[in-house]
Amino acid sequence: MNALASFTLGLPARLPKALRGWVLPLLLLLLWWAAIRFSWTDSKLLVSVGQVWDRAVEQTTSGALREGLQASLWRDLVGFAIGACVGLLFGAALGFSRLLENMVGPTFHTVKQISLFAWVPLISVWFGLGDSAKVAFLSLAAFFPVALNTFEGIRSVPREFIEVAQVFNLNRRQWLTKVVLPAASPSIFTGLHLGLIYAWLATLGAEYLLVAGKGIGNTMIDGRENFWMDLVVFGMIVVGAVGFTLNWIAGVVETRLLAWRGRAVAQY
Amino acid sequence: MIIEASLPESGRLRSAARPARRAPLRLRIAPLAPGLKRLLLSWPFPLAILALWALAAHYEWIAPQVLPAPGVVAHTFADLARSGELFDNLKISLLRVLAGFAAGCAGGLVLGVAMGLSPVFKDYVYPLFRAVSQVPVLGWLPLLMLLLGIDETLKVVLIAKAALVPIAMNTYKGLENVPAQYVEVAKVFGLTRRQLLWKVVFPAALAPIWNGIRYGLTHAWLALVVVELLASSEGLGFMIVYGRQLFQLDLVLAAVVMVGIVGYLMDKGLALIETRLLRWRRVGF
């Protein structure tokens, strides 16, 4: 419960809680509708809800949506899988070995400061403009958060846990699977979750910057170049929905796998 | 439970026993050793990569168009720095980030504070905020390009959006997670509402809020590079695109290095301010 519930900012508290969230979106829709109904602007850019809907139907029935989405998601998942695997291994290696951390860590921390998308032009020279370049870039996008959080997760396993493992004479595998990995798993999951988000962001970026092939990002760029606002808005909705779904899946998996920990936050 | 309870004890015992045995040795090299060791260990790896890169370029294992020699990149970097081209573009990029980040930071703080303090406001705004933040910065780009053109406004708006989301989110969560006991204590002490906010609530939420600001700046820098890569005729991102178009990879790499340096300095700067800001906190371990 929020400790500061007494602040209301003078907003109407009479409306039922469940309905409050709908007020602003409905107002915006109303504004959108009114702008068209009373033709406040004759710009071609102002498309109606109906046009967006027509475009959505057209994209869905023609298979263009499925094709683009499939290509984007496939790249997203392949890139994420590669980046996450490499990131897990790299992060774990750095986490377990102080020597390795001292040798490679500073370089890693420096390189990760380079803004992600600055890599795209370099990758495009090294890997071309096709799928391999995009997948390489996505892997890079997923690699950094996964590696960093795996490293931090393993490094923050309390010393006491390791000592208990020694007291109980656990063998190497038990030590890893019963003590270290469970203790580090919240941080590792955070990394994987972040990696998923970044990979999706990078999927779009890769499609904007490496313009070749199909994908939902290419669809939106097409829409922009042809001034098809309806297509752009539709693309945005799809992109948001995919991001939301990926987020949701990651959240569900995370809660399931970490359910053994009980509540993370103490109840006040 | 029993095991857990007895653990810290053993931990303390160990750490107390060990230094005593090794004390004489430690005393002699202690002041320099850890830092120096770390410094010495951190150089071989990047140097090895640099050497490999230099060898690869020297023996032309990789075509120079694809991977120019490190010397060439350094030379280009120095040339660009001397002619002022590098710093002109850097200045433009930094100004854009500053403008966008300032707007996003202000908006994010206001939104986050309002959502964190007033559950009613949160009920009204949060769902829309979540929906908007689900579409990543890049999803907004084509729409904003159509609406705003590809001028400065586009860049500033996009950067502001990139900074706003994490700042608002962290501020809101930070305020929401202020322990109820703190507020109760404040009430017991008869603090006024203003005192409650400035002496209790904001200090208690400062760490997550600052974290949000750090994320915000990182995201702002990320957004700047993207938007300059896609739609710009000046700035660091444009230098990268320009070099790529001319197939001058030395130019691209020099600009990438600069992007990295700025990102590094910004992060270090904020971390430094963080330690100052949060100095009053006494951390348990």
Written overview of the protein:
The complex is a heterodimer of chains A (268) and B (285). Chain A is an all-alpha fold and 268 residues long. Chain A has a domain at 77-259: MetI-like (MetI-like fold, Orthogonal Bundle). Helix content of chain A is 75%, strand content 0%. Chain A has helices at 17-37, 49-62, 64-96, 98-111, 119-127, 131-155, 159-167, 172-209, 216-225, 229-257. In chain A, helix 2 (49-62) packs across helix 10. The longest helix of chain A has 38 residues, at 172-209. The radius of gyration of chain A is 24 Å and the shape is globular. Chain A starts with 16 loop residues before the first helix and ends in an 11-residue tail after the last helix. Chain B is an all-alpha fold and 285 residues long. Chain B folds into 2 domains: 2-42, no CATH class; 84-277, MetI-like fold. Chain B has 12 helices and no strands. In chain B, helix 4 packs across helix 12 and helix 5 (85-117) packs across helix 11. Chain B is globular, with a radius of gyration of 25 Å. The relative contact order of chain B is 0.10. The model of chain B is unreliable at 1-29 (pLDDT under 50). The interface between A and B is large, with 72 and 78 residues.
Radius of gyration based on Cα positions of chain A: 24 Å
Q: Give the percentage of residues in beta strands of chain B.
A: under 5%
Please tell me what the overall shape of chain A is.
globular
Number of strands of chain B: 0
CATH architecture of the domain at 77-259 in chain A: Orthogonal Bundle
- Helix run count of chain B: 12
Q: What ranges of chain A have pLDDT less than 50 throughout 5 or more consecutive residues?
A: 263-268
Mean pLDDT of chain B: 82
Proportion of residues in helical segments of chain B: over 70%
Shape, per Cα inertia axes of chain B = globular
**At the third CATH level, what is the topology name of the domain at 77-259 in chain A?**
MetI-like fold
- Mean pLDDT score of chain A, rounded? 84
Number of domains of chain B: 2
Please bin the fraction of helical residues of chain A: over 70%
End-to-end separation of chain B in angstroms reads 21 Å
Q: In the CATH hierarchy, what is the superfamily of the domain at 77-259 in chain A?
A: MetI-like
CATH topology of the largest domain in chain B: MetI-like fold
Number of helices of chain A: 10
SSE pattern of chain B? HHHHHHHHHHHH
Q: Please report the first level of CATH classification, the CATH class of the largest domain in chain B.
A: Mainly Alpha
